[in-house]
Amino acid sequence: MLSRAITAAAVAISLGVVAVAAHCAPASPLPLVIREQGSFAIGGTVRTAPGSFDNNAPTSAGQSIHADHLYAFYQMPENPRRLPIVMLHGAYQSGRSWETTPDGREGFQTIFLRRNFSTYLVDQPRRGRAGNSSIATTIEPVPNDQLFFDQFRLGTWPNFFEGVQFDPRPETLDQFFRSVTPNTGPYDATIISAAMAALLAKTGPAILFTHSQGGEPGWLTAIQSANVKAIVAFEPGSGFVFPKGEVPPAMPSAAGTLRPVEIAPAEFAKLTRIPIVIYYGDNIPTEPTSERGKDNWRVRLAMAKLWVAAVNRDGGDARLVHLPDIGIRGNTHFMMSDLNNVQIADQVSAFLSEKHLD
Amino acid sequence: MLSRAITAAAVAISLGVVAVAAHCAPASPLPLVIREQGSFAIGGTVRTAPGSFDNNAPTSAGQSIHADHLYAFYQMPENPRRLPIVMLHGAYQSGRSWETTPDGREGFQTIFLRRNFSTYLVDQPRRGRAGNSSIATTIEPVPNDQLFFDQFRLGTWPNFFEGVQFDPRPETLDQFFRSVTPNTGPYDATIISAAMAALLAKTGPAILFTHSQGGEPGWLTAIQSANVKAIVAFEPGSGFVFPKGEVPPAMPSAAGTLRPVEIAPAEFAKLTRIPIVIYYGDNIPTEPTSERGKDNWRVRLAMAKLWVAAVNRDGGDARLVHLPDIGIRGNTHFMMSDLNNVQIADQVSAFLSEKHLD
Fold first, then answer.
1. Does residue A30 contact residue B36 with C-beta atoms inside 8 Å?
2. Do residues B32 and B54 lie in contact, with contact meaning Cβ atoms separated by under 8 Å?
């Protein structure tokens, strides 16, 4: 792993080469050997309507609905490492985030399987294949593509950022936009973390990857479940939890105000017991700007820095890696599927190795 | 394949033995060797709102939404057979239908992968991970578990049918109910078949498996795409298409009236060019009954028989297998995940072998 990381760092000097090489590499150099794969639901609730069920004239009376569970698809390699990796997606996404990249290469599901980790890909409660919700919702076909293009830092619509780690072909952008899938019930981080804790009870000790909006339920899962042995958070976007008395001020931005979340110090303390690493990509300004898509991330990066400092002040082991600081440029909000996602995976592998988690 | 089918038929004489053996067998006798796996979206539409997009004060104006595509997860074994299998789920379901069974054994995804078929599992447009819909909808938490129990022929709630091929443990029923996921837009068989035809254009010649409500978009896909080389339909539940002039009367039942669908004779003729097999399970009466869950299938089985006759009358190659007629008893509406699903897979393998499709 160490030599791999060094190679990646060396190659990163010439970013153009990395992008071309990653894009043209054959998809599957070696076959995958999988000991077991499958899927299941876990967590959730059962709601039963009052009355008696009439088999031959059914109404809601006396009937139940199973809802608010998560869905997980798992694969175990032939000789798995000690800790599996559980992957939790972000807003508007599903487990599909970690599968094939928009430009058709292997995503973290298969990359980490090749590195001999068992993987669990989650569709959180009220999303994707875990669609049954205990609370009603209305889904409108709201057009958001251009907002997403800016907010996920592919560029400033309609122009890609120079050197962005995203293949500019129209068919790639089409795949990216079609990875979007709506909430099928109200978003609720506590419902998600409850189901995630149930999942961790089933998997046993595991490493948790979170993306974007998945950050907050990720922290809450680690607070609830001692089976979370590390968190790798890719651009957590909201829900930075601080202990009462140490909550920083809210941070206004051109994309709205980012508010920290207050929790009990005893809960926060649980986040100081595991290694945590947070990655942010490129094109995030440090000074306020009227560019909404960028300014959204200025405050998130700033809040994440305060959060890491708070964890470490209380004896924790948190680290923030702003990729441009280590010479890795061009990453979007979806670094796990960017053109240099193998390089990102190498960073993660090096971290897991350093923390003796592999 | 032939010896396998004969063995299965012989073992079927003692059903109790089959069920126990299937249930207690180790989940994964041999590792899977996968050459390539991944996922993508295909088909669908793009809708753009009028106006100009303002990057820093975004509204709907000038923005687009990608919607009405399907999602597919595929796996290719090391030495795949000539034709991949595309699997399309039924109502309230997703590609998850073909994954792990509710009692935790391998489903058709992995069983047919072990038999060296490449597999493509679909989430149809407006379902599961293909949730973006061009038309709005409201999702209510309607309790339907007991209706499903009856209608999917597990039994007559709260009692399982005697000898049913479904593990009666509560945790299995819990998994079964949690495989349900709602429509995220209006159900539209033509939207589904359009996306399916786009998928078949990508896969090339393939075998199509359909379940339940997937039957109708399955027929429509084969009409639109010459790449559908065979259809294996598990309990098609609606949308039996007949050529103009040969449409049978609607069939009333205790669960409502089943109406055939009229199509142009030239379209129907396309269904006479490929081998088709339809399977129905057990506990379907031949005479009308007030038992809603059963009577629902009486008319569907009857309509399917008329449909097969119509296809064959026009020179086609369709077959209906009512499993009890060949000594296979206890199957529910979900035979691909029933306790004897390996036996069902053997039936399918024998059919594919007979038609030189493997």
1. no
2. no
Residues of chain A numbered 142-171 and touching chain B (CB < 8 Å) = 142-147, 150, 156-157
- 8 Å CB contact between A283 and A161: yes
The CA-atom distances, in angstroms, between A182 and each of A84, A159, A214, B4 are 28, 26, 15, 44
Residue among B165, B87, B145, B25 nearest B96 (CA): B87
- Which residue matches tokens 């996922």? B39
B197 φ/ψ angles, rounded to the nearest 5 degrees: -65, -35
The pair of three-digit structure tokens given for residue B46, joined into one six-digit string: 């793009």
Q: What are phi and psi of A317, to 5 degrees?
A: -135, 70
Of B37, B145, B184, the CB nearest to A65: B145
Q: Does B285 touch chain A (CB under 8 A)?
A: no
Strands B45-48 vs B64-67: parallel, antiparallel or unpaired:
antiparallel
Residue B9 domain-assigned?
yes
Is B59 a member of any domain? no
* pLDDT reported for residue A144: 98
The owner of tokens 């792993």 is: A1
Instruction: Give the model's confidence band at B23: pLDDT under 50 very low, under 70 low, under 90 confident, else very high.
Output: very low
Q: What is the dihedral of CA B309, B315, B320, B325, to 10 degrees?
A: 80
Q: What is the pLDDT of residues A7-58, one digit of tens each?
A: 333 333 333 333 333 444 444 479 999 999 999 999 999 999 999 999 999 9
Identify the helix (H) or strand (E) that includes residue B24: helix B15-24
- The ipTM, to two decimals, is 0.92
Could you tell me if A60 and B298 are in contact, meaning their C-beta atoms sit under 8 angstroms apart? no
Q: Establish if A228 belongs to a structural domain.
A: yes
Residue A284 lies in a domain: yes
Q: Using CA atoms, how far apart are residues B32 and A10, in angstroms rounded to an integer? A: 36
Find the CATH number of the domain harbouring A6.
3.40.50.1820
Q: Do A32 and B37 make contact, defined as CB atoms within 8 angstroms?
A: yes
Q: To the nearest whole percent, how much of chain A has pLDDT over 70?
A: 92
Q: Give the structural domain span for A87.
A: 2-34+81-112+144-354
CA A193 to chain centre: 13
- What DSSP element (H or E) covers B318? strand B317-322
Q: Number of folded domains in chain A?
A: 1
- In this structure, what token pair is assigned to residue A180? 């979007």
Could you tell me which residues are beta bridge partners of residue A157? none
Q: Does A25 reach chain B within 8 Å, measured CB to CB?
A: no
Q: How far apart are CA A86 and CA A214, in angstroms?
A: 12
